[in-house]
Amino acid sequence: MRIAGMREDDDGTCLYLVEGEGPSGERLLLLYDENGGEARPAEPAGAEALFREGLLERCSFPAAEVFFPDELEDLERKLLSAAKKEEDEEQ
């Protein structure tokens, strides 16, 4: 997993755009808000809009440099869960 974008507020809390890979190699995006630990799936077009509007800054570095191992596992589960949900809705 990589961090593809982020925004830090005045309190030092960040909103991250986390990028991962699904079971069949598809690109998965998740917005993770440190404030409250909320994570939600993101669409590529929605992520691009956040960059265009200046709500996120582009970056690229391993998520392991920012998150603890238990946080990484949780984010991985959420990414895969979002991918499975999307796949189920398409069927």
Can you walk through the features of this model?
With 91 residues, this protein is α+β, with helices and mostly antiparallel strands. 34% of the residues lie in helices and 36% in strands. It has 2 helices and 5 strands, in the order ββββαβα. It has helices at residues 44-52, 69-90, and strands at residues 2-8, 14-21, 27-33, 38-42, 57-62. A 5-stranded antiparallel β-sheet has the order 4-3-2-1-5, with helices on both faces. A hairpin with a 5-residue loop joins strand 1 (2-8) and strand 2 (14-21). The longest helix is centred in the C-terminal third of the chain and has 22 residues, at 69-90. The chain is globular, with a radius of gyration of 13 Å. The mean pLDDT is 88.
Q: What characteristics describe this protein?
A:
34% helix, alpha+beta, 91 residues, five-stranded antiparallel beta sheet
Radius of gyration equals 13 Å
Largest sheet: 5 strands, antiparallel
**Which strand order spans the largest sheet, edge to edge or round the barrel?**
4-3-2-1-5
> What value does the average pLDDT take?
88
State the end-to-end distance.
27 Å
Shape: globular
Please summarize what this structure is.
The protein has 91 residues and is α+β, with helices and mostly antiparallel strands. Helices cover 34% and strands 36% of the residues.
Spell out the blueprint of helices and strands.
Blueprint: E1 2-8, E2 14-21, E3 27-33, E4 38-42, H1 44-52, E5 57-62, H2 69-90
Antiparallel strand pairs: 1-2, 1-5, 2-3, 3-4
